[in-house]
Design a protein that fits this description.
transmembrane helix, Integral membrane protein, mainly alpha, about 5% strand, transmembrane, membrane, about 55% helix
Length: about 775
């Protein structure tokens, strides 16, 4: 976030006296300090806590009591919310929940059509089912590591268990009480069960800290915009307590049931081959009960979506309390059943149920295909909207979430298998992970090879765009002497910023290729029941060599990908540059409420939006003054959402100033239902006045395209082409930062305040020499 300058900047017209004026600054991606935002060494917290708060300069604490001091400038306040997303380094662990966050995004990417109702409802149901499959996949991966690779294979093999002292009393070599396979599985079940409990605990704790804030009870919008009233103005949009509680209970139950199924399947298969009819009946009864419980979990997930038209305080006690407890009780029964004495039971091969990864991958593919069909149907009902991938952005992102989940779970299984067996995976005493995980890893090199020409294409296109833009750069600085190096630098910055507009194409290629290669991996694993290297042993030498190379490279790619998640997560919250790099996706992802996956990182907007709405409403009611909410980057999205939560009377006393704003460029294309042309036009009509500043060198912000006099730009960047009296040193290319450094910022803010004071929106579009009007 760039530094805020005083309101009365050079060249800015004076603001007429009309009561106190307040400028509420909201920073963007990466965060900042209140001292930098307010350009003051001493700041005071006006209201808030250590997580998010509003600050003023120390000398402005009593501004309302001395309005004569602020006749020509507003009182600046800074809302600092960076601790909601990037607080301490421990939150780097949230990056491990990236697949859950991505699938939650898919829920909000629905095409903007409101009919047919069955398609809208089915879209949400399919996304929630895919999200449930990701929870099952994560817990199944933990079961694979703890139950199969460790307790079943390594502890059940004397050569493997002797090399690891920590297996201790569970090793088959010790012939102790715990050496029976069922008892080893019962003990190892603590790991996936503990993971499930940890996810439940984090979801419940972050809900209390982030998403339990009571929203402001906004009044209905005016009648002339009621038809296009966006969901942001609904009382319950930023308070999805009931749905999150239901989903949290269902996903917690799914985790416990997955663990119970892994423990029960092995014991039940042994009992079916043994002569004990009692144990065979108990196994069948327990498996049937687990299946019924799984159906109940799916029914809970499918039954009800979000309730946004009212503040939903009610909780489904029977579901939220009894479903997780019942599934935990079934897990306890499964542990007791598996731990019963079976003296002749010996573990060999892989743990029964390893084909469940294949069924899970197949189910995900079917659900994504169905989601694409529904999204396409909805898109045909709203053909005029500008949406990413022609309305298929949601299915593409859902596929990306499944691919990320596969890379992370497969990477963990591969690396643990190598570590436990000292790299000798194909030894007779150790079979390693299921063949499907190896097949999925083996197609990663093919995916990377496919993406290389795509990356080269965009690189060449960007280079050609920069060359073609050189004449337009000089046209923006008509009085300057041409400098080839400087012109290329500016043109290159503009061309690089334009890559953002090609992101949907790149994501579509990645998602489509992942779906096809994933299907090929599934067919290969089911057809051969062997890893690629073994399946190609009898093939020609080039094919065998390619299969061996793909398997080796894929194994390392999955492991490297998982380590990359952890490393970048840690670095992102210790290094400001790294935080800014990954912050774009992270802040966009955690802006949206948890509507599909309850274990996703918490939604900071459910805290930030009520904070801003309450502050704007209470200050304007108490003082009767004018207020400009000034948002940069992601802060502009928060500002727009908060304005919609205000009562209509308050909205008429509020002006909106956005800069580096991704509302249309990113949110409008990927989330057209909530930031499409109709909701943005309605916001333009509801708020008293709105100005949006943007640059062509900004890779994130852009025009909001609502018509009228909202957009101001593109602003010149850099401010000076060469050395001038005002800029004796070369002016930097600012791109997404330091919008306040442009004189246009001070002028537009002063004009907004003047419009609020007069009660008549100012239609002036003259930008002077600092920028070109976009009309």
């Amino acid at each position: 976030m760039s530094r805020a300058t005083p309101a009365a900047q050079a060249g800015a017209p004076a603001v007429e006296s009309g009561g106190p004026a307040l400028e509420l600054l909201v920073h963007g991606v990466g965060g900042t300090t209140p001292q930098k935002m307010l350009d003051a060494p001493r700041t005071v917290c006006v209201t808030g806590d250590d997580t998010a708060a509003i600050y003023r300069r120390a000398e402005d604490t009593d501004a309302e009591a001395h309005p004569e001091r602020y006749r020509d400038r507003p009182v600046p306040e800074a809302y600092v919310w960076c601790n909601l997303t990037s607080g301490n380094s421990a939150r780097a662990l949230w990056l491990l929940l990236l697949p859950f966050m991505v699938i939650n995004l898919a829920h909000w990417m629905r095409p903007p059509a409101k009919e047919p109702h069955w398609a809208v409802r089915l879209y949400g149901v399919l996304v929630r089912l895919i999200a449930l499959s990701l929870t099952v996949l994560l817990v199944a991966a933990a079961c694979e590591v703890a139950l199969d690779l460790t307790a079943w294979q390594c502890a059940g093999s004397a050569p493997c268990s002797r090399s690891w002292y920590w297996l201790g009393f569970t090793s088959v070599a010790h012939h102790g009480w715990w050496s029976q396979p069922g008892r080893r599985l019962a003990l190892a079940a603590l790991a996936p069960a503990g993971l499930t409990f940890l996810l439940w605990y984090l979801s419940n704790r972050t809900w209390s800290a982030y998403e339990s804030q009571q929203p402001l009870n906004a009044e209905p919008a005016d009648d002339h915009v009621e038809a296009v009233k966006p969901a942001f103005s609904s009382p319950g949009f930023w308070y999805g307590r009931r749905l999150v509680a239901r989903l949290r209970a269902a996903h917690t139950a799914a985790g416990f049931l997955t663990t119970a199924a892994g423990v029960t399947a092995a014991a039940a298969r042994y009992d079916r081959a043994a002569t004990s009819a009692v144990f065979e009946t108990l196994g069948l009864l327990l498996e049937s009960t687990l299946a019924v419980a799984g159906v109940v979990v799916v029914w809970v997930v499918c039954r009800r979506g979000r309730t946004e038209t009212r503040l939903d305080e009610q909780l489904d006690r029977a579901v939220t309390a009894w479903l997780p407890v019942s599934s935990l009780a079934l897990l306890a029964l499964a542990v007791v059943y598996a731990a019963w004495d079976r003296a002749d039971w010996v573990s060999s091969g892989t743990l029964p149920g390893d084909r469940s990864f294949g069924f899970l991958a197949f189910a995900q593919g079917v659900l994504i295909t169905a989601l694409a069909a529904v999204a396409r149907h909805l898109r045909r009902r709203a053909p005029g909207e500008r949406t990413a991938l022609c309305g298929l952005g949601g299915p593409a992102v859902a596929m990306l979430a499944c691919a990320l989940g596969g890379v992370m779970t497969g990477g963990v299984a591969q690396r643990v298998a190598d570590w436990v067996d000292h790299g000798a995976i194909h030894r007779a005493s150790f079979n390693g992970p299921p063949a499907l995980l190896t097949w999925q890893a083996s197609v990663i090199p093919a995916l990377l090879a496919l993406l290389i020409p795509v990356v080269l294409f965009f690189a060449v296109r960007t280079w050609r765009t920069a060359r073609a833009d050189a004449p337009r750069v000089m046209a923006d600085y008509p009085t300057e002497q041409p400098d080839t190096a400087r012109t290329r630098q500016i043109a290159r910055a503009r061309a690089m910023a334009g890559l953002t507009d090609h992101a949907p194409v790149f994501l579509g290629i990645v998602s489509g290729a992942s779906l096809l290669l994933g299907a090929a991996a599934l067919v290969g694993a089911w057809w051969t029941s062997e890893v690629p290297e073994q399946a190609a042993d009898r093939a020609a030498t080039p094919i065998a060599f390619a299969a061996d190379a793909a398997q080796s490279l894929g194994s390392w790619c999955t492991g490297f990908g998982f380590l990359l998640f952890v490393t970048w997560g840690r670095r992102a919250y210790k290094d400001a540059a790294a935080r800014r790099t990954v912050g774009i996706l992270w802040d966009v992802g955690t802006f949206w409420p948890r509507a599909a996956h309850p274990f996703a990182p918490p939604c900071y907007a459910e805290r930030a939006v009520p904070d801003l709405a309450w502050r704007m409403n209470t200050w304007t009611e108490r003082t009767g003054g004018r207020l400009v909410i000034s948002g940069h980057s992601q802060g502009s999205v928060l500002a727009a959402a908060a304005v919609w939560q205000l009562p209509a009377a308050t909205r008429r006393r509020v002006a909106l100033l956005t800069y580096g704003c991704p509302v249309e460029r990113l949110y409008g294309r990927w989330f057209p239902t909530y930031f499409g042309p109709a909701p943005l036009q309605a916001l333009h009509q509801e708020v008293h006045c709105w100005r949006n500043l943007w640059r062509t060198t900004d890779p994130i912000g852009g025009p909001v395209l609502t018509g009228g006099d909202v957009d101001r730009g593109p602003l010149l960047d850099p401010l000076a082409y060469g050395r001038t009296r005002e800029h004796p040193l070369p002016a930097p290319i600012l791109g997404h930062s330091d919008y306040q450094a442009d004189p246009a910022f001070g002028r537009e803010r002063a004009l907004l305040l003047a419009e609020l004071a007069s009660g008549v929106p100012n239609q002036r579009a003259d930008q002077g020499s600092s920028g070109r009007s976009s009309g």
